């Protein structure tokens, strides 16, 4: 029964650590949430119009998706590192890095979602006398929503994870807690930072998945 | 009403899709454009609502060039039905039909009423179908909605691009019958592209036969069946279809050409035209008691038809049919 006792001790110590550092963890959690939320919002503001635009001006699509893909291949830690000499440390640096990271999934899914609307729909819409704008908002965009939402979901889960690195540019977040744990050899403190990150990522995933289903037009859920 | 003037279309890859099309489609008629695949029939149709621009030439509708009009206005005044149906899956049936009225800025009451009328017109119960989604409907029902959507703005012209060819044979027959009824009720100018000769013969008032971007023949189904102008038209219609069709529809004096004799047996006092119908021949032989008539086409003598050979012809026909 010693393993049970060990586990009990482990939980106990973890719990004590959380209670002891609750203010730090609370603040870090809120910072983390804020960093993720703001960077995803900015990424949406940039990516949605960009994705729509390249879906219409196809010759720009490859280069644009290429650029966002290259940005995403930069290791996340290195991206934060690159930005420090340029912008310095602080929240803005973290937000910029996180936004850059979130661009690709949203741009690509918006582009794909709009491009795969069947040519018959486009032809019907045009032939009925819709202007290109009306076609976009009444037909192409609604039909692409499930794809776009999936892109935003991927980007969000990614961002919540990467936001742990914000601590290295002094922007706070749950990375702070993990980093302190690492520095002071306190595994329970590391867990106290890592577990909320995992919970947060899963929570976002769950909420957005639900939203994705809800936002899929009713007529398209019939199969 | 719709007039094509020397319409040419060369695609970027160098195919000459249309070569000097000159046509004058009759107002209020259902005109079928037919031809083998790649003959340019869909290309020709899509010129009418400017989904495709010509390389050269002009299209005149009601005396005005369509290239002088606003393209969006033009398209809203022309109904369009496509083979893939193209209903918007995220909209209900009512919303799908209401697209054009909404674009035209009708009031909600007007739209609701009109949508119900349209559904009635294509034999779909409004209460049942209004709030359904396209994917809940069968192919035949969807295309009925497609037709309702094309008619809703009360356009004078309706373009149909092989609208029934993806449907099962039973729905296809039903929709063809319905379209014929609708056309005789509404008297719209309908341009209907098909590759199915039986379909064209069944529904068309006028048929345009296209081949490699050129008009081979333009005329009524009867004209085309009775006097195909080229070998191509003949082979495209097919020998079978010509005889079958002629046996079951209005036969004319010329149809009995095989029974003509060139030597007048007795005094051929009566002349009839080649296009004289069966009833007229029977009237001449039975009521007027002629024994022989001279059949003429454009003042040219085709031969003499005697009462005896005419009766033999009818008898042998009965034998073939039964």
Automatic annotation (TrEMBL), chain A:
Residues of the ABC transmembrane type-1 domain: 29-208
Keywords, ordered alphabetically: Amino-acid transport, Membrane, Transmembrane, Transmembrane helix, Transport
CC annotations in GO: plasma membrane
InterPro entries given in the database record: ABC_transp_perm/SBD, MetI-like, MetI-like_sf
Membrane-spanning ranges: 33-55, 93-111, 143-168, 188-208
Gene Ontology BP terms: amino acid transport; glycine betaine transport; transmembrane transport
CDD domains: TM_PBP2
Membrane topology: Multi-pass membrane protein
Record's subcellular location: Cell membrane
Main location: membrane
Family of this protein: Belongs to the binding-protein-dependent transport system permease family. CysTW subfamily.
Protein name in the entry: Osmoprotectant transport system permease protein
Organism expressing this protein natively: Piscibacillus halophilus
Phylogenetic classification of the source organism: Bacteria, Bacillati, Bacillota, Bacilli, Bacillales
Automatic annotation (TrEMBL), chain B:
EC code: 7.6.2.9
Every ABC transporter domain range: 2-237
The entry's keywords: ATP-binding, CBS domain, Cell inner membrane, Cell membrane, Membrane, Nucleotide-binding, Repeat, Transport
Localization terms from the record: Cell inner membrane
Keyword match Cell membrane: yes
Entry membrane topology: Peripheral membrane protein
Primary site of residence: membrane
Record field: transmembrane: none
Catalytic activity field: a quaternary ammonium(out) + ATP + H2O = a quaternary ammonium(in) + ADP + phosphate + H(+)
One Pfam family in the UniProt entry: ABC_tran
SMART domains with a match to the protein in the record: AAA
GO molecular function, one term: ATP hydrolysis activity
GO cellular component entries: plasma membrane
One GO biological process term: glycine betaine transport
SUPFAM superfamilies: P-loop containing nucleoside triphosphate hydrolases (SSF52540)
Family: Belongs to the ABC transporter superfamily.
This protein's name: Quaternary amine transport ATP-binding protein
Organism field: Piscibacillus halophilus
Lineage: Bacteria, Bacillati, Bacillota, Bacilli, Bacillales
